[in-house]
Amino acid sequence: MNPFYRVDNRLVHGQIISTWMPHLRLRRIVIANDAIPDSTLQMSMYRMAIPEGVAFDALPIQKAATWLNARRFGNDPTMVLLETVDDAIRLFASGHPFPTLNIGNVHHAPGRRAVTNAVYLGDDDLHQLRKLADRGVAIEVRSLPDETPTDLRAALRSA
Predict the structure, then answer these.
(1) CA-to-CA separations, 36 to 32, 60, 108, in angstroms, rounded
(2) Is the pLDDT of residue 130 over 70?
(3) % helix, strand, coil for the chain, step of 5
(4) How far apart, in Å, are the Cα atoms of 31 and each of 51, 66, 84, 113?
(5) What distance in Å separates the CA atoms of residue 150 and residue 15, rounded to the nearest whole number?
């Protein structure tokens, strides 16, 4: 699927660069988040981590929705990174309805329970994801491309 939408609270990190980038043959990484574009330090770190030849954009959620809607991605394999489930919900609600969502990493926190060893979701996360699923979004949990994806529908039904 192009673009590939992923919730990963680490955003750009080693797994993205060393596994997802070659797997998807990425030519572009987009971060949709309201805080990142204004963080000079984080933007510098991400630019250093992303290999030359791979385009990088970071946009606030609303601008990201407009920007993504205006693009045709054809031969430009793209990953859209979202820091939180809430960011994904907000991107969708901002007028950019994506068809699939990968949840790759959500840190443990009070009130969250393990879905996998890398994804911990709370009741609010599950409620929001259920709304996305009801709107037709296929949601998978998968940290690495060589893992078998876990369809989140079962967890959503039991939550």
Answers:
(1) 8, 8, 21
(2) yes
(3) 40, 25, 35
(4) 16, 14, 11, 26
(5) 18
Distance, CA of 6 to CA of 21 (rounded, Å): 13
pLDDT for 62-113, tens place per residue? 999 999 999 887 788 999 999 999 999 999 999 999 999 999 999 999 999 9
Put simply, whether the predicted model's pTM sits higher than 0.70 gets the answer yes
Tokens found for residue 156 = 């959503």
- Asked if 122 contacts 130 with a C-beta cutoff of 8 angstroms, the reply is no
Give which of 1, 53, 54, 10 is closest to 30, Cα–Cα.
54
What pLDDT, on a 0 to 100 scale, did the predictor assign at position 78?
A: 97
Q: Which residues pair with 79 in a beta bridge?
A: 4, 29
Characterize the bridge pairing of strands 28-32 and 55-59. Answer: parallel
Domains of the chain: 4-158 (3.40.35.10)
Bridging pattern class, strands 120-122 and 138-141: unpaired
Residue whose C-alpha is closest to residue 11's, from 110, 82, 61: 82
Q: Locate the DSSP E strands across the chain.
A: 4-8, 28-32, 55-59, 78-82, 100-105, 112-114, 120-122, 138-141, 150-151
